[in-house]
Amino acid sequence: MPIDPLRLHLPPDLSPERIVPRPASTDGGGEFVLYWMQSTFRAHHNFALHHAVDVANALRVPVLVYHGLRHDYPWANDRLHTFILESVVDLAAAFAARGIQYTFWLDESDAPGATWPAEAERRPAAAPRPPSALQILADRAALVVTDFLPTFIHPRQLRGLRRKTKTPVVAVDSATVVPMRFHDKAHLSARGIRPVLMNALPRFLVAPEEPVLDVRRTIEVPFTPTVPTLETIPALVARCAIDHTVPPVEAIRGGTVAGQARLRDFLVTGLPRYAAERGDPNAPVTSRLSPYLHFGNVSPHEVLLAVRAADIPGDTGSSGENAEKFVDEALVWRELAHNFCFFDPRHRTPAAIPSWAQVELEKHREDPRPALYTDAQIEAADTGEPLWNAAQRQYLRDGFMHNYLRMLWGKAVLQWTTDAATALRILEHNNNKYSLDGRDASTYSGLHWIFGKFDRPFYRHPIYGTVRYMSLKTAKDKFDVAALLRR
User: Fold this and answer.
1) How high is the pLDDT of residue 1?
2) How many CB atoms lie within 10 A of CB 419?
3) Residue 112 reports pLDDT greater than 80
4) Is residue 462 within 8 Å of 364, Cβ to Cβ?
5) CA 410-439-351 angle, 5° bins
6) For 310-385, where are the alpha helices, taking DSSP H only?
7) Same-domain status, 295 and 381
8) Do 168 and 192 form a contact (C-beta atoms < 8 A)?
9) Which regions of 107-222 does DSSP assign to beta strands (E)?
10) Number of domain units in the chain
11) Is residue 228 part of a domain?
């Protein structure tokens, strides 16, 4: 009897809004349910995994988790590869503990990298390639469940598999607390989305129950799995055809173990000071959780639930000032970013800049610039502004930049380039190449904020028009710039 995966009984924490379906049902004829892990690199609080187990139990088949890492994704380099492989070490152990088969494939071929995103799809058709391991497994499955993200390579990869296999493919949103499909429109500001999110929290901010897989048996896969260890990762990365000029960040290890340790440390050392000091780049009070949220090592649910339960001196549970300020950043602004990318497929382009801001920036396009730097000068932190150079070096060295510095960093590039399109291209490249939390919905909301998104017109200024201007010179009034430069 055919089973519609969308009509199965769903546990309370897995609402229908989380599932992005292809209209189809499964006849239950496959060998297993395939969970194609693309972005939610965790074995807990994972709604895609929950759905895969739920369907597998209904069909009385096992679950196979397939996780692949190719070398041709945009900005592929040692830093990103290392973080992902460190995540794989934790994933293998976590899935083994749950009795779910996890298999990882590392692409060590020397094929040339693809161009992303649209250029590769417009290339003339080449000789047919043999089916990938993913397609072979998908064809054997009763259902494919994967992660849903509205940006980077994920929408294109999802469309690609759906074209190649007859097996139904559904994607599940584990990236947000309030599902992206819960919203019926794009919200234009944090002020607009905030009450919607707060009203929805009682329904969606609950601790998920981890389902138990009923049927367990080993499934043969059409490749030799790679089983990395922390000791073998450097050699594995060195064999991959990726950019080897961007080194790993030694101080930030990838994976759920490190992500949860970072969360515990933040609750003790950062959260009690968050409201007062979060805007100071010299103060170690920010959560530094964004890489772990981007790669899905930790869940936004567990982060917010931990903050809600934290015993913060001077705060009263979730109503305290520190918790309230953190929730505004980790929930409101982060979910606004996903809402933006979900409803606007142009979010990588200048077309997503608000119309009023486009008019203002175009009106001032011919204004004299204080300097015009080349792409290479900007990337190498070789400008005449020491504070900006220090911020860029945080990306180059640490794979991280404080949020206030990111705003100054982006606004400055707008005045050092000929137009908004050039500035956006340069900012995207530097953010996504070096930052461990780049290539994310929050990346594109943050970049577009530079050009007026989610903001209002301010007083007129050369180059910016009425788009908000921020001065590197006046940053000294906000924090100790000299201390930052010494670091």
Assistant:
1) 46
2) 13
3) no
4) yes
5) 60
6) 321-327, 334-343, 355-363, 375-379
7) no
8) no
9) 143-147, 169-172
10) 3
11) no
